[in-house]
Write a structure and sequence with these properties.
Rossmann fold, binds 1,3,4-trihydroxy-5-OXO-cyclohexanecarboxylic acid
């Protein structure tokens, strides 16, 4: 295992980033986000492991794998943010830094998006900074890892 692998996990519908609701989520695709993260990770001396799933259990399995494979987790759980105790429990079993990212400002939106299960575990939360939030999260992880 690399001591500096950062797992970046993306939840349901984020495979449609750039296509769905561009007024809310912008026009950059998830591939664009991955490329930008990979470039910055390289500059910061971090290894990127970037994934997306529409399946809650798959995200749980990946978080469990991160216990051995990753130093930190950056996660945009998408809709599972607001529903998933399973993802929270999996993150609670992970020892390193966890940063939660949302492209949109969930607090400016519908009431059901205001609560995040994941925020109970996250060391930092970035919302409303667009896809730039992923890069801010990577910089924060680099800062926390020293
Ligand atoms: C999101 C916000 C969630 O409420 C929503 O379900 C998403 C994306 C965001 O990045 O702004 O799918 O996590």
């Amino acid at each position: 295992m690399s001591s500096k692998t950062i797992m970046v996990l993306n939840g349901p519908n984020l495979n449609l980033l750039g296509q769905r609701e561009p007024e809310t989520y912008g026009t950059e695709t998830l591939a664009d986000v991955e490329a930008a993260c990979a470039a910055l990770a390289g500059e910061l001396g971090l290894t990127l492991d970037f994934r997306q799933s529409n399946i809650e259990g798959e995200l749980v399995t990946w978080i469990q794998q991160a216990r051995k494979r990753a130093t930190a987790i950056i996660i945009n759980p998408a809709a599972y943010t607001h529903t998933s105790v399973a993802i929270l429990d999996a993150l609670n079993a992970f020892d390193g830094p966890v940063i939660e990212v949302h492209v949109s400002n969930i607090h400016k939106r519908e009431a059901f998006r205001h609560h995040s299960f994941v925020s109970r575990r996250a060391d930092g939360v970035i919302a409303g900074c667009g896809t730039q939030g992923y890069l801010l999260a990577l910089r924060q992880v680099a800062h926390l890892l020293g």
